[in-house]
Design goal:
alpha+beta, Aminopeptidase, 52% helix, three-stranded antiparallel β-sheet, DNA-binding, Arc Repressor Mutant, subunit A, 2 domains, seven-stranded mixed β-sheet, homodimer
Chain lengths: 323, 323
DNA sequence: AGAATTTATGTAAGTGCTAACGTAAATCCT
DNA sequence: AGGATTTACGTTAGCACTTACATAAATTCT
């Protein structure tokens, strides 16, 4: 069991559930020893009826934090065992009001001292251990209220963002250059012959001519890539940009692009262009934000049938973004 | 839901269970958003296998605080879904060791950042709320360890003891004089004719002759009774002593007896005797401890067929016990 | 070494709860 | 007023877990 404790906040669910079960069996054991024909799990419902009089099922469910189904089923059982009766609400014939039987009220009067004893004993032990569990729990509950999952996921992404590195070509990663590009090409279009050739042999098709292939790594995982191809002296094409679908939204594309532009500048390129498709809205938005400008007429000698967009990079001045 | 909070420590079980469920759905939601094919409930098992290598089922159960059945069933499911494999332990052919598949290990590597994000977010929020939930919980867990139910029941009894009052005869309680005595008589013997007469009409049979009938009340509930009957001038018989079965162990009998002796003294009685049966060991022990002494030969003119014990009270001196 | 006990696990049945669906009654909307 | 929506509840199926029992292997005890 100490393993769960070692895991800390991660195993909190399991630990709390275990404590919860312990508390229920504590109550059951006390009831049994006192000869009270009661079950610990009935407590919230019975106590609610005792404190606040007859209640409709949905109402009870809301107050004790369970579903109406649970209350409905429990109610059936308690009726069977003679603890509550169900009367139809005359003012609203959908509702069924539960109320305690005389016997239940009598037993509950007898149970009261046991409840008191449980509370007192727990309070005393908590005081001795110098903890205020109720206050701590109350705060913790409110802290779970707001939109935790989204916040956690955002935190995940921030951490990933900081773990992403952009690196140059490495033969060991060649397969990923193919894999990442093939994935999106197959999704939106289809692989053309030229794609297959370039993706399979980046060394001869791109690097040999003075181009570059970049990879984005998340730890040791390849999640994105893009390439620069030399079309003619000083004229570079940005191409074969792809980011793994499950890692989009991390800004990987932007960083690949920024690095490609750096490379282009380092090599004193004169023109940087790209060809794309009007169907790829998010990609186009990225290109625009990085300084690419749409050209009125498409490139005359495009290699791709899918491309209907032609953009040329204009240096927007200062470094828009660091690496 | 605030109803549960109002109940404080009593509804702790329900609240903890609710929080536990919330935490599981938090984890599930995070996994879903990150595209991880994992369930929150698998975490303790998978994490254990990841941290400590292949483990036998019983071992796992002990570490994660569940039954072996639960682990066995979960294991079957995880095997079906390709997360773990089961290999028989060669050194002990009863054991089946679970170990992670390669795929599971890969996925778990990917999950790690999500775990980290969850922990960090919760830690941050806890810090902001100025609570140390883990420390509080750890203390609370140890505080549940020792024998709580028995302690609580003892506390109940102590409280009842302080709420017990001994009162004189009241016509409104006459039925209880019959009820309490009939209960034990039917259990150990049977009602003799004389019993029925005395129990039905205590006023004429006991009080009219200068006797007394005492009742023990727990709040407004009659849980014990006993009577003094005048046999002849100054000679009193202690009789019709009965304590409700579910309220024995509270010292009610002792207090009834003590009060009866007081009454006997107040009325300047000369002899106080009782008749009983050797079968009623606990009662005899009480009589002895209060100063009654066994007589060698039984009373010659006993009214009861069941009685084979005859005791006479000898004042042990100082007041043994207050009321 | 053989019998008795303990240990490790599987299986079946049951409990407490939820999600998802369905239905009747009430309410809202012109 | 009459149709659309909402509300209150029941029902079913399923999950996670438990208890109780069964069984085979290991261990202990003479």
């Amino acid at each position: 069991m100490s393993f769960l404790a070692d895991l800390g906040l991660l195993a909190l669910g399991s630990r709390l559930r275990a404590i919860s079960d312990q508390l229920y069996t504590l109550a059951d054991e006390v009831y049994r020893l006192r000869g009270l024909p009661l079950q610990g799990r009935w407590f919230p419902l019975l106590r609610l009826l005792q404190d606040q009089g007859p209640q409709a099922i949905g109402n009870i469910a809301a107050q004790i934090g369970q579903t109406h189904s649970a209350v409905s089923q429990l109610a059936d059982r308690l009726v069977e065992e003679g603890w509550v009766t169900i009367v139809d609400d005359p003012s609203d014939r959908r509702r069924r009001c539960l109320s305690l039987t005389a016997r239940a009220r009598a037993v509950l009067r007898e149970v009261r001292p046991a409840w008191k004893a449980i509370v007192q004993e727990l309070e005393q032990r908590c005081a001795a251990a110098d903890i205020d569990l109720l206050a701590t729990l109350a705060k913790f509950e409110t802290l779970l209220d707001s939109d935790l999952p989204a916040t956690v996921v955002a935190r995940c992404q921030a951490s990933e963002r900081s773990r992403v590195r952009i690196v140059g070509f490495d033969p060991a990663l060649r397969q990923h250059f193919y894999r990442l590009n093939a994935a999106w090409l197959r999704k939106y279009f289809y692989l053309e012959a030229i794609d297959h050739r370039v993706l399979s042999e980046p060394e001869s098709e791109l690097l040999a001519g003075g181009g570059e292939v970049l990879f984005a790594l998340l730890d040791d995982q390849v999640i994105g890539t893009c390439a620069l191809k030399v079309e003619s002296a000083g004229v570079y094409e940005l191409t074969k940009m792809a980011v793994d679908e499950s890692h989009q939204g991390l800004g990987v594309g932007r960083r690949l692009l920024a690095r490609a532009i750096e490379v282009f500048k380092e090599r004193d390129g004169t023109t940087l262009f790209l060809e794309s498709s009007s169907r790829l809205k998010p990609a186009l938005a990225l290109y625009e934000s990085m300084g690419f400008e749409h050209q009125a007429q498409p490139k005359s000698d495009s290699h791709y049938r899918r491309s209907d967009v032609y953009m040329i990079w204009k240096d927007p001045g200062g470094t828009t973004r660091g690496a």
